[in-house]
Design a protein that fits this description.
- Helix content is 27%, strand content 38%.
- A hairpin with a 4-residue loop joins strand 3 (55-59) and strand 4.
- It is an alpha+beta fold.
- The chain has a single domain, classed as Lipocalin, CATH 2.40.128.270.
Length: 143
């Protein structure tokens, strides 16, 4: 009798562990604010590696954005109301770079076009005023 109870207990524990395992393996959905968003696609094209990874972070406590365009670092303001997102003027370093400048120009052009943001899991899509994607990002966990 005791062996049967132990067997049932072990079976129940195994079932719980197997049910919970996929949930534990899934990373938590990312928040739009206070997340490091790495640029993965610009104008429908994948991004090539650059000397400085194009990314941004929306800092909710100051309503400031910071990041890098692929060559230069930048800061600026943003406005967020639900899924409506717009970026204000930005300021940044002015280093001359090679091939990264094309990615950087496209990145800053895309930021000026943004009117909406959609987060799905750990993916972010920035949309223009016609709901057309202008850039895509993935959330990167802090190291």
């Amino acid at each position: 009798m005791r062996l049967v109870r132990i067997g049932r207990s072990m079976l129940a524990a195994a079932a719980i562990a197997l049910t919970a395992a996929p949930a534990l393996a899934q990373p938590a959905p990312a928040s739009l604010e206070n997340t490091y968003w790495k640029l993965t696609e610009l104008g429908g094209k994948s991004i090539a590696a650059t000397s400085q990874e194009p990314h941004f972070i929306l800092h909710s406590d100051t309503r400031r954005v910071s990041g890098a365009g692929g060559c230069n670092r930048f800061i600026g303001g943003y406005q967020l109301d639900g899924d409506l997102l717009t970026f204000g003027q930005t300021a940044g370093t002015m280093m001359a770079c090679g091939d990264e400048m094309q990615t950087e120009r496209g990145f800053f052009t895309a930021l000026r076009q943004v009117r909406k943001a959609r987060v799905s899991g750990r993916q972010l899509t920035l949309l223009d005023d016609t709901d057309r994607p202008v850039a895509r990002f993935e959330a990167v966990d802090p190291k």
